[in-house]
Design goal:
heterodimer, A: Rossmann fold, 13 helices, 14 strands, globular, B: alpha/beta, Rossmann fold, five-stranded parallel beta sheet, two-stranded antiparallel ribbon, about 40% helix, thiamine pyrophosphate (chain A)
């Protein structure tokens, strides 16, 4: 069923409220949108609204972790990763504090609110910080497990969540593991490495390519840092052509991370699908994905082009 | 005399600070020296802290992280860190980082240095202790230039909203910052009225007088239901006449002659 990953976050928080007494949740006046309100409903004494103050959101979460709590701090990705960047860097990541930053409304699919609210740099920002783990789930099944695993893991984690509904990529048997990429479909002609909302599109593109006689491998990189080098290198060696796909700037995100791995180990032609170093704008999410060339058709075309470069 | 022990400890802290910064040829003497009595009073009188790993200990957050030498000195006098580290301040591979790194030293409760963040950290600790109905108290030392950071006021709002009466902030009010006098750079006054307007209980003290500090901390204990700020009037570079009240000594190390002069003034001579 199509549902937004932020909904899964709310569901996971309810489970944590019941099962983990150390978990506390902080929000900056967006609890209805980020779905931390779900935690507040069942565990109001462990929920803290800090008001519209994202720097203080992260700083307070840091202090709570120093007193033994496992804080989940939430806002929109723009304000969590953007506005509070330096607090995350210096006060959370540098001392390796056990703070989880669950940032919703990431990417262009925020839609109508426009460029000011569309974080397309957050993966890049978070990935550049030492000690940080960066997770971008593809669907609700993965998002819920990622949140639960992040609570178990000791250390700073950034989880990127979306506003818009995504189709399920996985079924209930799926087992999420931090740092472990997932081969969703085997293939020998080209590899599509996707993350977040682009994973469902990568799968659709591979179906369409199959009908045209092109055998595309599909890999979901849900953990962008630490990245699963092995699965990427193996795919590059076996298919000799790679297309990356992310709802994020082409600068510094998944595409860059894959290039960093491959340039060191197995340089093959790579084409990156992402937002082309430009700001977004207001619009329906699907119209924006079309305009900014983040569709399954774009993935399909890139695969065909890159195969010619082999 | 009543405060003789504290005065002796403060003297040792000053000597440690100058020795460290002189040997490092780098560091922040002015704001370390202005906070000596405050930090001495906290670590040797006010705070419940016998062991840096004891769960029940009170917490100290040095929000003005460039004052690292005063914190390191107190931790050395407490016996939490080895005095032999003194010559390693700011050197490569040292545990004594230019700004405090909690991962490298026992007794450093938070990594600080980027200004304006310590009050939020202290709030978080105080909130967690309240949630768990624990008795631990939290103390945060702020610089007076530091309160120009907007995040301080976000935190000031939160401490009031959540009635953090287990939190005490102390303002090292020496009136100076790197570029000059606070109020020439950016007006911070009236600090008392600002914090009172944010719902805090504000107490004024002489930050170099133990009797005055004791009165302030005792008054704080009587106030429940709200956070408190002790505005401690201090002199930047206190204890070294040529450094006192000079912004130029914010972040400069004394040369050998200056170091000898300063040690002489503090008392006890070079080996004292």
């Amino acid at each position: 069923m199509a549902k937004a990953t932020r909904e899964a976050y709310g569901e996971a928080l309810k489970k944590l409220a019941a099962n983990n007494p150390d978990v506390v949740v902080l929000d900056a006046d967006l609890s209805g949108s980020t779905k931390t309100s779900e935690f507040k409903k069942v565990s109001p004494e462990r929920f803290f609204n800090v008001g519209i103050a994202e720097q203080n959101l992260i700083g307070t979460a840091a202090g709570m972790s120093l007193a033994g709590k496992i804080p989940f701090a939430s806002s929109f990705a723009m304000f969590a990763a953007g506005r509070a960047f330096e607090i995350i860097r210096n006060t959370v990541a540098y001392p390796f504090l056990n703070v989880k930053i669950a940032a919703t409304h990431a990417g262009l699919t925020v839609g109508e609110d426009g460029a000011s609210h569309q974080a397309i740099e957050d993966i890049s920002l978070m990935r550049s910080i030492p000690n940080m783990t960066v997770i971008n789930p593809a669907d609700c099944i993965e998002a819920e497990q990622a949140v639960l695993k992040a609570a178990e893991y000791v250390g700073p984690v950034y989880i990127r969540l979306g506003r818009m509904a995504v189709e399920d990529v996985y079924d209930s048997s799926y087992q999420f593991e931090i740092g472990k990429g997932v081969e969703l479909k085997n293939g020998s002609d080209v590899t599509i490495i996707a993350t977040g909302i682009m994973v469902q599109k990568a799968l659709k593109a591979s179906e369409s390519l199959k009908a045209q006689g092109i055998d595309a491998r599909v890999i979901n990189i849900h953990t962008i840092k630490p990245i699963d080098k092995e699965i990427i290198i193996k795919a590059a060696k076996e298919t000799r052509a790679v297309v990356t796909a992310e709802e994020h700037s082409i600068i510094g995100g998944l595409g860059s991370a894959v290039l960093e791995v491959l340039s060191d180990t197995c340089p093959v032609p790579v084409r990156r699908i992402g937002v082309m170093d430009t700001f977004g704008e207001s619009g329906k999410p699907e119209d924006l994905m079309e305009k900014y060339m983040l569709t399954e058709k774009n993935i399909e075309e890139s695969c065909k082009e890159i195969i010619k470069m082999k | 005399m009543k405060y003789d022990d504290l005065k002796l400890t403060a003297q040792n802290l000053r000597k440690n600070i100058l020795t460290m910064i002189h040997e490092a040829k780098s560091g922040h003497p002015g704001g370390s020296l202005s906070a000596v009595e405050i930090v001495t009073y906290l670590y040797f009188k006010e705070m419940n802290i016998k062991d840096p790993h004891d769960e029940g200990r009170d917490r100290f957050v040095l929000s003005k992280g460039h004052g690292a030498p005063v914190l390191y000195s107190a931790l050395m006098e407490k016996g939490f860190i080895n005095k032999e580290l003194m010559g390693t301040l700011r050197q490569v591979n040292s545990k004594l980082q230019g700004h405090p790194d909690m991962k490298k030293l026992p007794g450093v409760e938070a990594s600080t240095g980027s200004l304006g963040q310590g009050l939020s950290i202290a709030n978080g600790m105080a909130l967690a202790f309240k949630l768990d109905k624990k008795e631990n108290r939290v103390f945060a030392l702020l610089g007076d230039g530091e309160i120009q950071e907007g995040m301080i006021w976000e935190a000031a709002m939160l401490a009031n909203h959540y009635h953090l009466d287990n939190l005490t902030a102390i303002l090292d009010h020496n009136g100076l910052q790197i570029d000059g006098k606070n109020n020439d750079v950016m007006t911070v006054e009236p600090i008392d009225e600002k914090f009172e307007a944010f719902g805090w209980h504000v107490i004024k003290a002489d930050g170099h007088d133990f009797e005055s500090l004791e009165k302030a901390f005792e008054e704080r204990k009587k106030v429940t239901g709200k956070p408190a700020l002790i505005i401690a009037e201090t002199i930047k570079g206190k204890g070294c006449s040529f450094m006192e009240d000079k912004a130029s000594w914010h972040g400069k190390a004394p040369n050998y002659e200056e170091f000898c002069m300063a040690m002489e003034e503090i008392g006890g001579g070079l080996n004292g």
